[in-house]
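Running this now, will post back.
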Amino acid sequence: MQGLFGGWVALDVQPLCDWGITLMGAVYKLATKNSDGMGALQIGVFYEPNAQCKRERATHFGLR
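Update: finished.
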């Protein structure tokens, strides 16, 4: 029997108004007797303007 089995998971977190962090992991294994599993982890930072935060910063009271 031959084949490829695996799965992945991703997580996006935006702790600051315009900046965020993304994490993605993957694991896979060939369906053969002598095969080892493999994996990967990807980490990234992104900038995405957020209109809601821009409106809150425009008030006299600042961020809530």
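The chain has a mean pLDDT of 77. More later if anyone needs it.
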